[in-house]
Design goal:
With 486 residues, the chain is α+β, with helices and mostly antiparallel strands. It has 14 helices and 23 strands. Bound molecules: '5'-O-(N-(L-prolyl)-sulfamoyl)adenosine.
Length: 486
């Protein structure tokens, strides 16, 4: 993999050279370091950890609010447990990291690639009767997958270090499917918070999670037109509960298998957030997630620096009191111009400049990172004003990202147009019968992957009379989203 070295000139065209831009920006802003000497394992640096903690905080809040309880399971899973569900092990067998021990041991352990088979034996002990259901837990932990596709910093990891996985158990299919819908709403809230737009699709059967009855996936479009899977929700039916004997006593006095679901997101969602908002200058962070929401740069000249600094600190106090994450950059060895460039690269949403004239005029200068607008605002009532601007930046960034993604989704009803559009990047919706063989053929013809049929809009809208893109003797029943994927 071609990686940019720290300090090298930054790539100018994020569009053409997205991965180089991405690697440059996470490295240069000291969010992340990809030089760790193990493939697919990377380091979060302090600025990155602060960002991550804010995102994790929101993820926890949303799960807690919806009745999920946080747990922490061991990283070890006995191999026999991972292998109990036949489809599950078929999917993960090649990606499992084995644990070797000093001396000899009978137990064969693996590092969890996901925790369904770690949770199930404990669910079996904890769930007794119908009053225990629904049962909803989650954890934010590391999981390990020996990914065979090329690893990429923050995007495709072998140690996924911010894996939020939720696991739930229900009395019947109906309640489990209600949970699937709740999970979709939870993920919408999380991605809206970060301003990341999404397409929600039901994955085709050949691409569902190993062991699932069906998978609903969130994808977003990267600046280069390729899509990225940023979250998935699985209905697992009784596939896991049967092999782990997870049963509950019904009010009628009979024993039934629970229906389970699981859903997960990872730090890849942070990568998506960075990708959809960033620009040639560097990061552009939505205030919702920015470790520093406002940076105050005092313009210091000899003679007036004390008054200016005092004012900068007073504004900082006021903002802090209003719950704003603020920093005063009072370094004396850097010029204001240098600081502007630096904090712009770091993605700080709003800069406040205060000079001697501003103190005199009872005003401050606001500079927005998203629009690069700069204007004077009255000193009086600054906290309210700043909160309003931060809110506006959250909304504008989210809207701009949605607009870009929507512009990258198109429809094609014939092979020639579909092929042309796919080569330009983005998502192309094509008519599909619903037949798996035809879907696989469409993938081959377009040399692209099927994301699935829309869950966020009617998949059969305006499909009447159209034919399957690959099996032209078959009537089309759905629009199938196709794309090149990360
Ligand atoms: C759901 C949670 C699961 O593992 N078990 C528990 C289910 N689903 S999944 O689709 O395999 O993964 C959930 C999300 O995690 C992200 N992801 C990754 N991120 C970074 N590096 C990886 N190697 C990686 N693999 C999966 C994806 O966003 C995926 O949707």
């Amino acid at each position: 993999m071609q990686l940019v070295k720290q300090g090298e000139p930054r790539p100018r065209e994020r569009w053409r050279d997205f991965i180089n831009w991405f690697n440059w920006v996470i490295m240069e802003t000291e969010l992340y370091d990809y030089r760790y000497p193990v493939k697919g394992a990377y380091v979060w640096r302090p600025y990155g950890v602060r960002l991550r903690r804010i995102v994790e905080g929101f993820i926890r809040q949303v799960h807690d609010e919806t009745g999920h309880q946080e747990v922490l399971f061991p990283v070890f899973i006995p191999y026999e447990f991972l292998a109990k569900e036949s489809e599950h092990i078929r999917g993960f067998e090649q990606e499992v990291f084995w644990v070797s021990k000093g001396g000899s041991g009978e137990e064969r352990l693996v590092l969890r690639p996901t925790s369904e088979t770690a949770m199930m034996p404990m669910f079996q002990l904890w769930i007794k009767d119908h009053t225990d259901l629904p049962f909803k837990v989650y954890q934010i932990v590391s999981v390990f997958r020996a990914e065979t596709k090329a690893t990429r910093p923050m995007i495709r990891l072998r140690e996924i270090s911010m894996f939020k996985e939720a696991h739930t158990a229900h009395a019947d299919r109906e309640d489990a499917e209600r949970q699937v819908r709740e999970a979709v709403e939870i993920y919408k809230r999380i991605f809206d918070f970060m301003g990341v737009p999404y397409l929600i699709s039901r994955r085709p059967d050949w691409d569902k999670f190993a062991g699932a009855v069906y998978t609903i996936a969130f994808d977003t479009v990267m600046p280069d037109g390729k899509t990225m899977q940023i979250g998935t929700v699985h209905y697992l039916g009784t596939n896991f509960s049967r092999v782990f004997e997870v049963k509950y006593l019904t009010p009628k006095g009979t024993w039934e298998y629970v229906h389970t679901t699981s859903y997960g997101i990872s730090e890849r969602s942070i990568a998506a957030m960075i990708a959809v908002h960033g620009d040639d200058k560097g990061l552009v962070l939505p205030p919702n997630v920015a470790p520093i929401q406002v940076v105050i740069v005092p313009i210091m000249y000899k003679g007036t620096e004390e008054a200016v600094l005092r004012e900068a600190r007073a504004v900082s106090e006021e903002l802090m009191g209003a719950g704003v994450r603020v920093k005063v950059d009072d370094r004396t060895d850097k010029t204001p111009g240098w600081k502007y460039n630096y904090w712009e690269m770091m993605g700080v949403p709003l800069r406040i400049e205060i000079g001697p004239r501003d103190v005199e005029n009872k005003q401050v200068i606001l500079a927005r990172r998203d629009t690069m607008e700069k204007y004077a605002a009255p000193r009086e009532g600054i906290a309210d004003m700043v909160k309003e601007v931060l809110n506006d930046i959250n909304n504008k960034l989210r809207e701009a990202a949605w607009e870009f993604m929507r512009s990258m989704v198109r429809k094609a009803t014939d092979l020639k147009t579909a092929t042309e559009l796919i080569s330009k990047g983005g998502v192309v919706m094509v008519p599909w019968s619903g037949d798996n063989e035809c879907g696989l053929k469409i993938q081959q013809l377009l040399n692209a992957d099927a994301l699935g049929v829309p869950v966020d809009e009617d998949p059969s809208r305006e499909i009447g009379g159209l034919r399957d893109l690959a099996c032209t003797d078959k009537q089309a029943n759905y629009w199938l989203r196709m794309a090149q994927r990360y």
